[in-house]
Amino acid sequence: MLFWKKMPSLWIGNQIAEFSDLDTAKAIAALKIYLTFCLFCKESDSGRRTVELTFSNLCDIASLSRSLVNEGLKILYAKELIKNVSPTERKKIYTVDVLEQHEDGWCKLPLKGIVGEDKKISAFQSMHNRYHFELLALQTYMYLLYARDNRNDYTLARKKTICTKLKCKLTDLNKAITYLIHIGLLDRVVKKDIVSRPLDLFHDSCYFYMKTGGDGALTYRKKLTPLIIAEEEFPF
User: Fold this and answer.
1) Out of the domains of life, which is the source (predicted)?
2) What's the distance, Cα to Cα, between the start and end of the chain in Å?
3) Which of 23, 12, 3 has the alpha carbon at shortest distance from 146?
């Protein structure tokens, strides 16, 4: 199994807070469905990521009722975050690549350790789909993935900055972070060491570690094998 999948990310920095203005249950459903599409998509020869899932599939994978699946899809269509690219009316083939030339930017969405062998997302099975802290948890998770530096396996961010981006209170954010750890989307949160900078005593910068399928899962790079040439082969 792959360690991660691509998730379009430019919209997250601009629009993720908008979901707080929607009905909570419907907004949760929309974000669950979007994450599900990203996790189960396959890349075509053209580079477009598509996924073919029925209402029943989405109900099982994301732990949603059929009515919430319907409402969640409506939101994603209205916000132009997904498209149906099926050549027929009855068949649904969705894509999250909605911009021309696929210039939507992307971040790494953990796959292994999140999707089980039964093809279900265990974290989603634990959610009640009705509480505001659940919605904020999903928004926080997606924002942290969007903001992660690709060189590190964590996101370094200030809680104050996250609150500003998501338009939420610190107490609500802390509850959402605790919930993310509880349902297994975040592994741990470590406050940044400020021993060498005593003036930052009251800072709120933290390292947010995502739950992944292994160490370095989000930063793994193939090591280039150095070309070894015998001394006698040098032309000078």
Assistant:
1) Bacteria
2) 48
3) 12
Please say if the pLDDT value at position 228 is more than 60. no
Residues 133 and 176 sit within 8 Å (Cβ to Cβ): yes
Mean pLDDT along residues 133-137 = 98
**How much is the average pLDDT of 209-236?**
65
Of the two residues 203 and 108, the one the predictor is more confident about is 108
pTM: 0.89
Residue-wise pLDDT for 30-65, tens only, equals 999 999 999 999 987 777 889 999 999 999 999 999
Q: How many Cβ atoms sit within 10 Å of the Cβ of residue 86?
A: 14
In the chain, where the domains are located: 4-210
Report the C-alpha gap between 23 and 112 in whole angstroms: 31
**Pair of tokens at residue 106:** 């992307």
